[in-house]
Specification:
Four copies of one chain form a homotetramer. The first copy, chain A, is an alpha+beta fold and 266 residues long. Chain A folds into two domains: 96 residues, Immunoglobulin-like (Sandwich); 147 residues, C8orf32 fold. The first copy, chain A, is built from six helices and twelve strands. In chain A, a hairpin with a 2-residue loop joins strand 8 and strand 9. Chain A starts with a strand and ends in a 7-residue tail after the last strand. Chains in contact: A-B, A-C, B-D, C-D. Chains A and B meet through helix 1 of A and helix 1 of B.
């Protein structure tokens, strides 16, 4: 599936600030980048942060005054239909080191606090992929998708109590449930065709059968159309723009669509 | 300084559980392991978890029934006197990838929630190492060292409000302040000679001048005598024993002392 | 049912402190005080706080040094078997003023935060007394009675997440559920014969059918044997001893038993 | 000072809901109501809730569909300049029963959690009215008045950490500080001439010298011009509109101005 992305963000920085941009599609086997381009207006230098590419590309820049950031890309998403039913959970001691961290509670995913519920609700029957599907279904059925009720301080515990929120909150809750029952889970920002209103999306990856698998507890996007951007423990790690200072959003347009298989590179 | 360690932990496991042990001294330039030995009674296999050794050695095992874990070591701590006064904070964009994570809030160190206080209290004057010393002094002067008032759910915000706690809570608070003002900080478990009552200790490492530097906000231990065990974002990552299941502590003896420079290996 | 009470509390006050004692049985139609006596050793004056007697008798005193407080009483509990099944909830607008306050969230009963769960779990079927019984049964079935996991800062939300606690925590949770679904509920401290280990007890009163009715979500005590002491919104209002300052508990004996119907007054 | 009030609130109720309105000025010695009128469009019956008038007049109604509520009043505020400097705190044991409740923590004013700070910051010097002024000044100097950062779930602890908020948050924080240091404090909703943008206001009353005294920690309004509406422990008790159900705000106009001393009654 060929996906076309055109995201444009305008901010005002009253004072110069260091900024990390996590806007570019990850280069990976399940999504081949045909062409892409990240640009700043006025032009400013970008410095690629070091780090494993599988967690996403992050660029440092310094921003001041009025700044527009634009990312255009054409990506072939090749992962196909994702079906985690029947997938098993590896033995804990066989987990790679960089997977174990995703079993632990984090800033917004206090899996320790949600463990009593998760254990009592989800541990009697299904295991592995089936258990993840059961937990995602519980969230989908019991949560209301409601913009404006959560903010940057809302944690999975808050969302669990409110039973409302946006993609970020659905994802935090599912991640917490998974970790609570012993399944490594992490958060992924993504471009998703067809989301309405158009915006960045946040979904979940679970570690099953020795690999990471996508799942969207909001059911707003099909997993086979998602272009993954950045990966981390929770919203802390995957913000499309981490500002060390202050800025005001002026406008944001995120245009993501399914393109013809032979759509020309950007 | 030659440090002798003899730690012995007895637990009862009503049901078999996976366990990660983080009890061994880190092999590193600032602390040379003369000899050490980790043993389980009854004997049980240990599997070294993969991962960067600078973050500590972690061993997987499976425990059931009555289990005693013993770690004996002789370690030459060679880091000498630690003085962070005058050390500078590197530019953010020059931070290595694996350091940036220690700028972000974590489960027990909600640096975002403590930022308004930290910015208003600690950002007018001193920078870098001097600023860290100022923040550590504020905690030392305003907190009471009080066993029993905090538990495994207590976060830095809770400790900041209570102004009481133990080494874990002092460390979480200093880490949060540091991150809030832009200084990478992480938590380190350690063996500390002379702590009374004898127990595991928890201290802080800050990233200054392109390296990590120890600081103990409780002032219970001298930084030049600490044997570092495990490193992580907060208490989540450095527990000396992470139990995936349940266990009851039967007894714990942690004996750490300064040995003669020519003390014989264990 | 004639109940005999002998409670003795010893505290050490390093500095003189104002203290409110709420230890005496309420004088009310459902529990007739045959005889009772509150005394301090060394002797100290007691000043009855004004306020409605139906909320309990509270005595001011000033305590310093070693103080023993003893309350002895013989009380005929005449309320008989409590059965709230079938009782209805009055129209809100018909609620007396001093009942409405028990519909609102309070320090430890954040009924607003637990409302999404309570509404989804308990609002499809039963109403009034039946709904209260259903909510109390849910707590009894899903909570573990566990001393030592909660403390004076634990709220109903914390208890709901932990699914563990003592009488105080069971009561806070039931009160929050009741308020969330529109049933006024308040907390009552009580002497309860047969509690093991012997201690003060905390239960719930709900406003149904134009009156208050007792219910014990821990099922540790029979409602017809409870001697009510103090009534309030939550643990904030009904502590048997509110200390404006600091004190150390030296010993506490609470001896409550069912006496012969003709047992002699104290 | 003669104050003219014209408040008009329009809501849409998708389903019929019980509503308590607390919009009318309190009849009291410090504010004489020249004339006032509360009306609903379409017309609907109002039932005055019983309860002490000094805490405000509350009216029950049932609302459905589109409803406009209007309150018009002309009030002579006669309390004059409020100066609490030098006022003393009565002995605790002399506090009337209905004042003691305002020493205790409540839903949004967790004075117990803020006590360590308040005791360390504000207990070394000034007492009584001077101490209140010092605490109010601390809030004024350290908080930013910032609409949009707090919501109905924000507590005094949250505000203390954020150091930002609106009148509600300033009031909750001051109330918590006062209770923490032993001064009874409660919350008052008010009409305040000159507030910009025009809105309902929330301020604090402290119990000093055997009476309640107004103080506005935001310094947006002069205490001698405030028309008090409702009194309670915190925002829980004084909402101008408590809806048992759901409604959507359509529009709100709160017009409060200083009128000529001989302005004609409404």
């Amino acid at each position: 599936m060929r996906v076309k992305i055109d995201a444009s963000l305008s901010y005002h920085f009253a004072q110069a600030a260091d900024v990390v941009l996590a806007l570019e599609a990850i280069r990976a086997a399940d999504q081949r980048i045909v062409s892409d381009h990240l640009s700043l207006t006025p032009a400013s230098s970008l410095t690629l942060a070091d780090g494993p590419e599988e967690l996403g590309r992050r660029q440092w820049t310094t921003a001041s005054g009025d700044v527009t950031i634009r990312y255009q890309a054409l990506v072939d998403v090749t992962r196909g239909h994702v079906n985690i039913a029947g997938l098993y959970v590896p033995l804990r001691r066989d987990l790679p080191h960089d997977v174990i961290t995703y079993l632990m509670p984090s800033r917004y995913c206090e899996s320790d606090r949600l463990a009593p519920f998760a254990e009592s609700q989800f541990c009697a029957g299904a295991q592995g992929g089936d258990q993840v599907l059961q937990m995602a279904a519980w969230i989908y059925e019991n949560f209301e998708y409601a913009p404006g009720v959560s903010d940057a301080t809302t944690t999975a515990t808050d969302s669990f109590l409110m039973r409302r929120g946006v993609c970020r909150d659905f994802a935090h809750t599912l991640i917490s449930f998974c970790r609570a029952v012993g399944i490594p889970a992490r958060m992924v920002s993504a471009y998703a065709p067809g989301i309405n209103p158009p915006d960045f999306h946040a979904v979940v990856e679970v570690w099953l059968d020795n690999g990471w698998h996508l799942i969207d507890p909001t059911r707003l996007a099909a997993e086979d159309s998602l272009v993954r951007i950045a990966v981390g423990r929770d919203a802390t790690d995957i913000s499309f723009m981490t500002i060390f200072g202050a800025a005001t959003l002026v406008s944001q347009i995120v245009d993501v669509s399914i393109a013809a298989p032979d759509a020309a590179p950007i």
